[in-house]
Amino acid sequence: MERDKQLVLVRGGGDIASGSIYKLRRAGYPVLVLETKNPSAIRRHVAFSEAVYDGVSEIEGMTCRLVSDLEEAYAVMRAKEVAMMVDETCEVLQELRPWAVVDAILAKRNLGTKRTMADKTIALGPGFEAGVDVDLVIETNRGHHLGRILEKGFAAPNTGIPGVIGGYGKERVLHAPVAGVLKNVRKIGDLVEKDEVLAWIERENQEAYPVVASISGLLRGLIRDGYPVTKGFKIADIDPRREEYRNCFTISDKARCIAGGVLEGLLYLEARQQG
Question: 168: which of 6, 117, 172, 227 fits an S-S bond (Cβ 3.0–4.6 Å)?
Fold first, then answer.
């Protein structure tokens, strides 16, 4: 079968998902991404989900376009670009049968992906049982097994602890101190100092609470200005390595490693199916 006929449906367009989307499109697969109407990517410059807001998103020279129906989607994919639709519950599956489905939502639980959705199904991270919910699960936990393909069982449970960069782990990730609407002061790529105000959270009573930098470094990720957040919501990521400016705009090592597992998994399932 020609590769350009093997449609891969990807649920989720965040920064980790975008690594897989990018690799699949580069490998020749037409890719249709399904997103929510209000995606909340922190590393926005490397998340195709931003197309939901801007109509188009570009990562490392690859373009993703928001479409309203399948006719538009096919036109975008014929142009060798990534198509994206707002479709949280996979309603589009009533109209098409994709060659494969990849759940890359990374919600730490299954939000409705089933093995019956396609002949080949893959899910990223915890919340799925390989061989039951989907054909394969890809390990997303950092460490020796990152990107490993599981044919049975579950990925490692979510630790809730960010990966360590420059000696900092949980300290480099910021969460909303209160619920409200985020109003950004700084932008992704800025060098920031510890205790500097990065954003304000405006509440309904017109009070505003500051979001301050927990460490000094490079502001690698920040949720969109105007996004409504709940208390404890992850909103920013600081990289202590000030010299890593380009990392703000390129796919991460973790995303690339997981993407390799996804591509390998699809090729493995194809070979297995062919006997």
Answer: 172
